[in-house]
Amino acid sequence: MPWLTYNIISAIGVPVLMAVAWAMSGFRRPLPGRVIWGSLAIQFVVALLLFIFPAGRSAFVRLNDLVFAVMSCAGEGSRFLFGRLALPPGARSATGEESLGFFLVFQALPTIVFFSSLMSALYYVGFMPWLIRQFARMFVRLMRISGAEALAASSNIFVGIESATAIRPYLANMTRSELATLLTAGMATIASSVLGFYSVILRPTFPMIAGHLVSASLLSAPAAVLMAKLAVPETEKPLTLGREAKPCYQRESSLIEAVINGAMAGLKLVGGIIAMLLAFLGIVALFDLVISATGGMLNAAFGWTFEWSLRNLLGYAFRPLTFVIGVPAEDVAAISRIIGERTIVTEMTAYQDLASLLASDALAHPGRSALLAVYALCGFAHVASLAIFAGGTAALAPERIKDISSVGPRALAAAILACLLTACVAGIFHTPGTESILLGAQAN
């Protein structure tokens, strides 16, 4: 099938995904026209600059190189602490020692501590608050949403659950639709602290991964607002509608304190990730044991040969959506499986499985399929994240627990759709002529 046909499918996928989100609201009217056109305009302009214009592609390459240059600094600490265990596969130390292979704990997770500390320092010097306000101002003007939810969405481009603290004074009076936007934006984006983590996992098979993760975060914020407003329409009048909201930040007393606090927060995040992976991978294995035993009896009774597992079942459920975002038909089964598993075992495991698919040449169209998968997976859109974001927000505004709980499941579904929407946008502007630049490796 010609590449242009896949691009057309991706274009068709945009209204299809929007219709799914609208269906969750019961097809309530009127449709948020300003949000729809404003969100799509932001996404299309960003994608157009990155994928089509030579200057944008050149900036994309420089951005990718910058992220990996910063990551090389992050590796100094882990190499000092863990020695050969911290060396990526194929690398050698200054003394000639060879890498022992890939170890998630020693090579990828330490980057979270470094990036968390770096972001804390950038907050202290005022750069991050300024940058977030610029995005929030753009969201308010183009999408005509409230300043509070615009601030939350723009914050989530760079940070995670802590973004809710920036709008803490507004939480008590936010509408249900605003709360849905807050949760959706949190789950549809990734924090900068884990960007390096994903980059380490995929860099050997996807050299331009860092640049794509940054662009995916930029696309996902307006996509999250769009899907949240379709799934949980605004029926009230937000207090900060159409005007900017002032962020609430607790500034440390010194730059050194900011770096220390950021490092401690990153270490807590690493501990949480380790605990979550241990728990969820074990629980999924237990589910698979039960499903496999039950499915084995059905196979024996009806003569089926189906491989029963939770990942396979979710993979089948996500096949229509995976096809509609523009993934080539030959790769739909493999990509839908990792998109489906993300909802239960987090995007960390899904990115590792994507890296394995690329390393084993298991994809018929690795260029397009892997690119769309990277965008579709770029978000905290999974069950564990819903508990984290809903629980964290409820802790800041305990009087809103009932509303947060009621919009939470729809916010998770909207976040999944928002991630798929960013993949659609990437699929629209993907061409064979840009693959060598945007992937950093030869693909078909």
Write out key terms for the chains shown:
444 residues; globular; single chain; mainly alpha
Number of strands: 0
How many distinct folded domains? 1
User: Which ranges are low-confidence, i.e. pLDDT below 50, for 5 or more consecutive residues?
Assistant: none
The whole-angstrom Rg is: 21 Å
| Global outline | globular
**Ends apart, CA distance between termini:** 12 Å
**Proportion in β-strands:** under 5%
Q: Structural class of the secondary elements?
A: mainly alpha
Overall average residue pLDDT: 85
Number of helices: 17
User: What helical percentage do the residues reach?
Assistant: over 70%
Q: What is the element string, with H for helices and E for strands?
A: HHHHHHHHHHHHHHHHH
Written account of the structure:
It is a single chain. This protein is an all-alpha fold and 444 residues long. The protein has one domain (3-439). It contains 17 helices and no strands. The protein has helices spanning 3-24, 33-51, 54-82, 104-108, 110-124, 127-143, 147-155, 176-188, 192-202, 209-231, 255-302, 310-324, 332-359, 366-377, 383-396, 401-429, 432-439. The radius of gyration is 21 Å and the shape is globular. The model has no long low-confidence stretch (mean pLDDT 85).
Present the secondary structure layout.
Layout (H helix, E strand, L loop, with lengths): L2 H22 L8 H19 L2 H29 L21 H5 L1 H15 L2 H17 L3 H9 L20 H13 L3 H11 L6 H23 L23 H48 L7 H15 L7 H28 L6 H12 L5 H14 L4 H29 L2 H8 L5
